[in-house]
Amino acid sequence: MAHVLTIIGTRPEIIKMAPLIPLLDDAFEHTFLFTGQHYSQNMVEIFLDEMGLRRPDAFLDVNDSDRDRLEEGIRAWLVGRHFDAVLVYGDTNSTLAAARAVPKEAKLVHIEAGIRSFDSRMPEEFNRIEVDRLSHYRLPPSGLGRYFLTDFEGIDPDTVEVVGNLVVDAYRQNRERILSAPLDDGLSPRGYHLLTMHRAENVDDPKRLKAILDNLARLDKPVVFPVHPRTEARMREFGLEFPVNLRILEPLGYYRFMRLMHDCELVITDSGGVQEEAVTLGVPCITLRDNTERMETVFLQAAVLYDADHRNDLDVVAADMCARRDVIRSLKNPYGEGDAAQRILRFLQDKLAG
Ligand code: UDP
Fold it and tell me: Could you say which DSSP state residue 41 is in?
């Protein structure tokens, strides 16, 4: 039986890989390694518990997002171990560290391959391009990723397979529990917006961060904001204050967060996964960025890009997007129908047979 290793290290990777890991456990000799890029209870443990995921076979406890230290930790752990295939997800520092550390004889499989923002300032863009180059097989979430890989970058089409996005599987599998999670006190359906923000280009630059906060202050509804640890640290460092219409929360568990998304009027985000979840739930989205590697959402006008550095009309854009809600709800999901885990499994079984 083929021996497969999965390496992940952050909150979004746990959420998205949760539907696939049990299938890998059943079909292969499967080892699950967690790098510890994210490490706090509210960024890791709560997601392993809520997604019903078994404990990783090994926790590296790197407790750091530094790519070189992650790579060193993974390399050291791999010594004396042999795997036929190694699965990595997305574009985090753990993903690239794992891709670099894996010995050449193991087949490296990249899930969420091929997505591109064409923004070379983004560390994630650097990571995803290199991981795709190092991979044996690339599994993009939609046809757009396939196009970028094969037609733009000249990658062999036989190594590329569109599988959909595991974010849809995760939502579908947990829908009942999400809908039975209570809505936070004082909030009514469509009576608030939901915000997430943590990308380096938004929160590491005090001028940009201030411009975003000033834009958010223009909204006439409460904005629920579970604050990512990185954003919290930068707010303190820069001595900035949140506008009074923001309801500040700790990072939330998946059920409570998705319940808030389900019932909000509008999602405002710079998160990759949240852009995908918004279109999956049919909720209008303002993407707080100049570009996105989730262009499917923009082509469908389920999301709009918003460059807060050069604009101060977030209230107007919010009203426009909210008016599109019914159209957005009726769209076919560009990220598939929730069968990505099955499609990935079939692909692996086919490639690793014998
Ligand atoms: N998420 C969550 N609680 C929160 C904020 C986000 O459960 O307070 C989930 C969200 O549903 C999505 C994922 O975390 O599945 C997105 O993670 P993040 O924004 O950290 O990463 P990205 O997708 O940008 O890589």
Answer: I
Listing DSSP states for 140-183 in one string gives -SSHHHHHIIIIIT---GGGB-----HHHHHHHHHHHHHHHSPP
Q: Which tokens hold the place of 315?
A: 């209230």
Separation CA 50–CA 161 (nearest Å): 30
Q: What is the C-alpha separation between 18 and 169, in angstroms, rounded?
A: 9
- Residues in contact with ligand 1 (CB, 6 Å cut-off): 11-12, 15, 196, 226, 251-252, 254, 257-258, 271-274, 277
Question: 262 catalytic, yes or no?
Answer: no
Atom 2, ligand 1: residue with shortest CA distance? 254
Please spell the DSSP secondary structure of 289-349, one letter per residue: SS--S-HHHHHTTSEEE--TTS---HHHHHHHHHHTHHHHHTSPPTT-SS-HHHHHHHHHH
- Tokens representing 202 are 């938004």
d(CA 61, ligand 1 centre) in Å: 21
Q: Position of tokens 């926790």?
A: 59
- pTM, to two decimals: 0.96
**Cβ partners under 8 Å of residue 343, min gap 6:** 161, 163, 164
Band of residue 354 on the pLDDT scale cut at 50, 70, 90: low
Catalytic residue among 3, 198, 228, 310: 198
Report the range out of 62-71, 182-191, 237-246 with the highest average pLDDT. 237-246
How is residue 11 annotated by DSSP? H
The answer to whether 69 touches 62, Cβ cutoff 8 Å, is yes
